[in-house]
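WARN no homologs supplied; continuing
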Amino acid sequence: MKNVGKKKWDFRSSPFVLVLVLFILIVFARELLHLAKKYEFSEEKHSSYVSELEDLENRKEKLENKIEMLGTERGREEEIRDKFRVAREGEEMIIIIDNEDEEINQE
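OK structure emitted
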């Protein structure tokens, strides 16, 4: 009979508990947005690294092909001819000069 006139304290309807729950929800929502931004940033970085990896693999393949070509006598000779503009004895070298630049300068 002692508790007949008194209300039992209910934590669910307490303003303090409601404010505390609201604060916790706001903190979680803020952290969730922060994580979403980090995820988006990491996805962008990942895609750029994948692109860079593909470029490097293509470059590696080209370099391996060039190394393989330079392993042959013909490949070495071709590279020397291209880099130093030389010819074998008895061969003549023809150099074609494009006159478009001169025509533009004359106008």
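The two ends are 115 Å apart (CA to CA).
OK
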